[in-house]
Inverse folding.
């Protein structure tokens, strides 16, 4: 059998600093009778301004060496606009795999190209902290709209309620949309600030093997 096709996934890593591309080779080499040690892969990327921002043509120094790891190992920065935001528009990403040893003789190149249209704005976390001293109940609720277009991400939350620092009490922690406790501290004649915070790790699947990874966090929202 022979190497006839390749495929890959693209990740826009907004959760990295600086923001980067990440690629994963998802080629079914076994069905083509090709060993992972027989291939290497390189990328070519054209940005929305039609600039060729990355072009690795060296198969001896590849972006992906499947026999070692199926994800890209080089740091490739996402291009930014004048305001420091990731450039919106069409990204043309080409992955070329060369089979050049073992069962593949003579050497052969195969490639796969995707065009991904970026129209994404990171949401701002919105937390609502409420208190009922009669019940009692202290509740923090994530009211953020994370949807981008018609795509709702997978969300992993790190949600916390913080007691006044002077009390030296442990935080209440959770992973849900809402976090609550029936422990509220009051002190006559003194304002005690309770607060909540949230870190949300988002993974969007936009189809065509294209994903976004985003991490958002907010400062503590206080309530006296």
């Amino acid at each position: 059998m022979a190497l006839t096709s390749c495929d890959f996934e693209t990740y826009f890593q907004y959760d990295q600093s600086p923001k980067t591309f990440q690629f994963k080779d998802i080629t079914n080499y076994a069905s083509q009778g090709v060993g992972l040690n027989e291939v290497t892969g390189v990328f070519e990327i054209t940005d929305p301004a039609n600039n060729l921002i990355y072009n690795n043509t060296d198969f001896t120094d590849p972006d992906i060496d499947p026999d070692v790891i199926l994800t890209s190992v080089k740091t490739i920065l996402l291009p930014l606009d004048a305001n420091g935001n990731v450039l919106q528009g069409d990204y043309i990403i080409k992955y070329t795999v060369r089979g050049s040893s073992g069962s593949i003789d003579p050497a052969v190149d195969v490639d796969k190209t995707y065009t991904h249209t970026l129209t994404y704005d990171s949401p701002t976390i919105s937390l609502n902290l409420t208190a009922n001293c009669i019940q009692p109940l202290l509740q923090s609720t994530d009211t953020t709209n994370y949807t981008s277009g018609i795509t709702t991400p997978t969300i992993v939350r790190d949600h916390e309620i913080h007691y006044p620092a002077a009390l030296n009490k442990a935080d209440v922690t959770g992973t849900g949309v809402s976090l609550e406790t029936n422990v509220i501290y009051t002190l006559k004649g003194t304002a005690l600030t309770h607060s909540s915070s949230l870190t949300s790790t988002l993974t969007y699947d936009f189809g065509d093997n294209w994903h976004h990874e985003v991490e958002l966090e907010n400062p503590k929202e206080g309530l006296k």
User: Anything to note?
Assistant: The chain has two domains: 8-118, 127-201+216-223. The radius of gyration is 24 Å.
